[in-house]
């Protein structure tokens, strides 16, 4: 089977080769950001992702955890 590169991801920061950090600045939390976080975990095989949104006068932090088999 031939391997085909389907795309490329660029994460903001990877901490200790385990945690993906993503930074956003949006007034509203979009579902596509949640999907993107999960896709990053799957593609990189990292177990934890943290998304920081510096939107409406507060910082919102979302955590995604993926069990790696």
Please characterize this protein's 3D structure:
This protein is of the alpha+beta class. The protein has one domain. The protein has 1 helix and 4 strands; from the N terminus they run E-E-H-E-E. A 4-stranded mixed beta sheet has the order 1-2-3-4, with helices on one face. A hairpin with a 3-residue loop joins strand 1 (13-15) and strand 2. The two termini are 23 Å apart.
Strand content: 25-35%
Low-confidence stretches: none
User: Span between N and C termini?
Assistant: 23 Å
Main sheet: strand order:
1-2-3-4
Domain unit count: 1
What is the count of helical runs? Answer: 1
Q: Give the beta-strand count.
A: 4
Mean pLDDT: 83
**Residue share in helix:** 10-25%
What Rg is obtained from the alpha carbons, in whole angstroms? 13 Å
Instruction: Output the structural class.
Output: alpha+beta
Shape descriptor reads: globular
Query: What series of H and E elements makes up the topology?
Result: EEHEE
How would you characterize the largest beta sheet?
4 strands, mixed
Features:
69 residues, alpha+beta, 1 helix, 30% strand
Summarize the structure.
The chain has one helix at 31-44, and strands spanning 13-15, 19-24, 48-53, 60-65. It is an alpha+beta fold and 69 residues long.
